[in-house]
Every structure is written in structure tokens, then in C-alpha cells.
Amino acid sequence: MPGAKPGPLALSSLATPSPRAAFTGVRERTFLAIKPDGVQRHLVGEIIQRFEKKGFKLVAMKLMQASEDLLKEHYSALSQRPFYNRLVKYMSSGPVVAMVWQGLEVVKMARMIIGETNPADAKPGTIRGDFCIEVGKNVIHGSDSVESAQREIALWFHTDEVTCWEDSTEHWIYE
């Protein structure tokens, strides 16, 4: 209403959201990493384009040579698996493009865009279905849950490296 004065600010609106709430809805975030084979095969632009065309927002990205310590921490849950040492060696064999993407159900949707871990099981139209043959060289990593995304983002990025910005196309994507 014109000339109306705003009401009192509810105390609940000042409360800090829980870490989980900060990563849900359209603010949900996921961690993706284009692996050394994806970088060497010049697939970076193609992969980024798939997420942009879907309507997700890129909020952090860096090209880096991942240290062995970072990779061991990232893949710590797999440390007892027989392929663990090969995985760490492979991931440190060249540059990685680390990214944070944001959007509604981005963790789940990113996993669908990426495809099954084993390219033999990945459907055509997915990144792994289109570009991969072998499970050991499957081009991209994606967080498997919101909790994993939070952990991985904190591991790979400082908070000041993640940019909050207004995407002018959001009203064309979300109701």
C-alpha cells in the first residue's frame, strides 16, 4: 500500500539459519570438480555449459593443481578401498577445475547431469555417458549429498572465494 510504514522486524527474521537451511532451496549448493582427464581433453567449457543451460548458477571456480593432502582428505571415506592410491595419484596428475554451483535441488540434478560413476552404466546425454569409457577416468566429480557438498566446498574453497550474486535470469527459471 502506498505510504504504508513497514511493521516491526520479527525477531525470527534475524535468526541465523542453520547450516543445512543455508544450503537448501534455491540456495542449495554442490561441489563439482572436472578431473585431470576432463581438463586435458578440453571438456571444461562443454561441462560448464551443461550446468548453465540447465539454469544453475556458478558461484565459485578455480583451476588448480590439487595437493596430495587435499585429495586424501577429500577421498578419506574411500581410504580402505583397493583403488584409493590410484585415485589420489590420478587426481594429482594434472590440473582440476573446482567449482561450486547453486540452485534448486542442484545436488540431485547435478548427479543426473553427470551420470553413473561407471560410464558403462551412464545413459547417453549425461556427461559420463557422452565422454567416458572407463570408470577410472570418468571426467568429473559431483557431491552425492547436501552434507557432502558442504564438507567438500569447505575443503576446496575459502568462504571469501564463493561469490553471492544476483542472477537476472532467475525469474525465468524459478516460480
Strand content: 5-15%
Largest sheet: 4 strands, antiparallel
Annotation, overall tally of beta strands: 4
What is the CA–CA distance across the termini?
A: 24 Å
* Tally of alpha and pi helices: 8
Low-pLDDT segments, ≥5 res: 1-21
What integer is the average pLDDT?
A: 89
In N-to-C order, the SSE pattern is EHHEHHEHHEHH
Rg from alpha-carbon coordinates? 18 Å
Residues in helices, as a percent range:
25-40%
Strand-pairing-aware structural class: alpha+beta
What's the overall geometry?
A: globular
Strand line-up across the major sheet: 2-3-1-4
GO molecular function: ATP binding; nucleoside diphosphate kinase activity
Cofactor: Mg(2+)
EC number: 2.7.4.6
GO biological process, one term: GTP biosynthetic process
